[in-house]
Design brief:
The chain has 292 residues and is of the alpha/beta class. 49% of the residues lie in helices and 10% in strands. 35% of the residues are buried.
Length: 292
């Protein structure tokens, strides 16, 4: 079973550096879960790890696609990331990024089956043996379809059975593929004021590194879905002449801070995750080893 350490956090919190240190300590590779870093035409505006950082640890799913191809949806990401995991056959893999839906798709799979927080909280008070007994009584066919030692999978199946009153095996859509993984979820955190200062500084650095030139090259393709994102939209408006470059830069900072706020809201919805500071590498590894 592959053990995944999932590292999530707001933009500019320090995910890249943290993930590299964790991966180096464990001697494993990294899979990116940043929905903008997939595209090889976008580098500066997506804060892709530097060549030096990419050389330190093998990264997957960075500059792996083109904006001119089919956009990478969460479903596509789930399939491709799982394919990489199966090919690596590694004890540990670090998954890092700020796209919560993509991480969720990989760790939990995608399905349209019902969820209920009250039911989930009730099931969390039961032992895995009690949960297995429910499946044995209510859904014999499921026993050979999921890993009965994986509490998250078993608990999710029982949740659906309790809510619907029907066997989980009859309702699975196939979209959520069973996978031989277990994981620990890590959320990186910094004081809000410090995080916003880092965002502002990052935008200034991007401008210095040539974000305007990168955006200008992509401007003819501005209608493509991957380019409908902070850092490019604002500059496209500047190139249209509707706002100044200076105003566009201010808006990039403002909209990135708003995006970070949404990421933090998503993070707070993740039950059971470990919140740490980006430099607490030993705590992350210790937590993962005890949890997975």
């Amino acid at each position: 079973m592959t053990k995944i350490i999932s590292i999530f956090g707001a933009t500019a919190v320090g995910k890249t550096e943290c993930a590299i240190k964790v991966a180096e300590e464990l001697g494993c590779e990294i899979i990116s879960a940043d929905s903008r870093q997939f595209y090889k035409e976008m580098t500066i505006g997506t804060a892709v790890p530097s060549p030096e950082e990419l050389a330190e640890v093998k990264h997957n799913m960075i500059h792996s696609h083109s904006i001119f191809d089919e956009p990478v949806t969460a479903g596509i990401y789930e399939r491709e990331a799982m394919s990489i995991i199966n090919q690596l056959n590694s004890e540990y893999i670090v998954v890092v990024g700020g796209s919560g839906l993509y991480i969720k798709a990989l760790l939990y799979g995608l399905d349209s089956l019902p969820k209920d927080n009250d039911v989930r909280q009730m099931l969390q008070t039961k032992t895995i043996e009690e949960l297995r007994t429910i499946i044995e009584q209510k859904d014999q066919a499921l026993i050979n379809q999921i890993d009965m030692n994986n509490r998250r999978r078993v608990e999710r199946a029982v949740e659906v059975i309790v809510i619907t009153g029907r066997p989980y095996s009859e309702q699975r859509t196939g979209a959520a593929t069973e996978r031989n993984i277990d994981f620990a979820e890590i959320i990186l955190d910094r004081p809000r004021e410090l995080l916003y200062d880092r965002i502002n500084q990052r935008v200034d650095i991007m401008i210095q590194q040539g974000l305007l030139e990168e955006a200008r090259e992509l401007y003819p393709h501005r209608e493509l879905q991957p380019l409908q994102t902070v850092g490019y939209r604002e500059l496209f408006d500047a190139f249209d002449g509707t706002i100044s470059v200076e105003r566009a830069t201010e808006l990039i900072k403002q909209n990135t801070r708003r995006y970070a706020k949404r990421q933090l809201t998503w993070a707070r919805s993740i039950e059971g995750a470990k919140w740490v500071k980006p430099n607490e590498i030993s705590q992350i590894i210790d937590y993962a080893r005890k949890t997975i």
